[in-house]
Amino acid sequence: MRRGAGYFGLWLGVVTMALPLPAATPATPAGAPKTAKPAGVPLEVQISEVGPHTTVVLHFRGARAAGWVKAQPGSEAAVAGVRFAGSALSFTPPAAPGAAKPATVAFSTGIVISGPLSGQAVVGGTGAVALKTPFGSTTTQGGPFSIPTPRLPPSCTLGPCSSLKPGDRCSDQPGAKCYLYDQQFLCCTVCPTGC
């Protein structure tokens, strides 16, 4: 005689049916643009004369990856060969037997700038690499490179606050918040203006 267990199950079912269901979150269709602004300062990269044996490695000083890469029209398949982690960006054309390789690969990515932007490029092949930020640009076929950047206070980086508001937390570092400084939103651990 387990009549009590049967009543409990019936009671649980009635209570569950009486509770309101949470509103469904509309699904974002595949390929639909996202409304959030990507983090970081945009870096436009264009690699010319790409062939099956092309390799490009850029070691940045004063910048690190912000976590996104977006292909320019016509370079969608080739961008699968882009890797950007920490301060090293690399590109090798993805293996695609029988597919024609594009003559030029173009994409944009986000960077967080922490000081003068420079680095070392290693380019395997005959192509050139063009780099462009909102502050300046350069082209390299290998060797050292630099891109003009705004001067930053020592406790600040440029890039993480592009999708945040002043006062928002922008880093895992203690006290890191977004500040407006010299017409740029900076992520600083100490207020750059002596707040």
Could you explain how this protein is built, in words?
It is a single chain. The protein has 195 residues and is mainly β. The chain is 8% helix and 41% strand. It has 1 helix and 11 strands; from the N terminus they run H-E-E-E-E-E-E-E-E-E-E-E. The chain has one helix at 3-18, and strands spanning 41-48, 55-71, 82-85, 88-91, 104-124, 129-132, 137-140, 143-147, 156-158, 177-181, 184-188. The strands form 2 sheets. Strands 1, 2, 3, 4, 5, 6, 7 and 8 form an 8-stranded antiparallel β-sheet that branches. A 3-stranded antiparallel β-sheet has the order 9-11-10, with no helix packed on it. It is elongated. Residues 4-35 have low confidence and may be disordered.
Rounded Rg: 24 Å
Low-confidence stretches: 4-35
Please report the total strand number as a whole number.
Answer: 11
Strand residues, percent = 35-45%
Fraction in helix: under 10%
The main sheet comes to: 8 strands, antiparallel
User: What number is the mean pLDDT?
Assistant: 78
Counting DSSP H or I runs of 4 or more residues, the number of helices is 1
Shape: elongated
Quickly give the structural class: mainly beta
Order of helices and strands: HEEEEEEEEEEE
First CA to last CA: what distance?
Answer: 74 Å
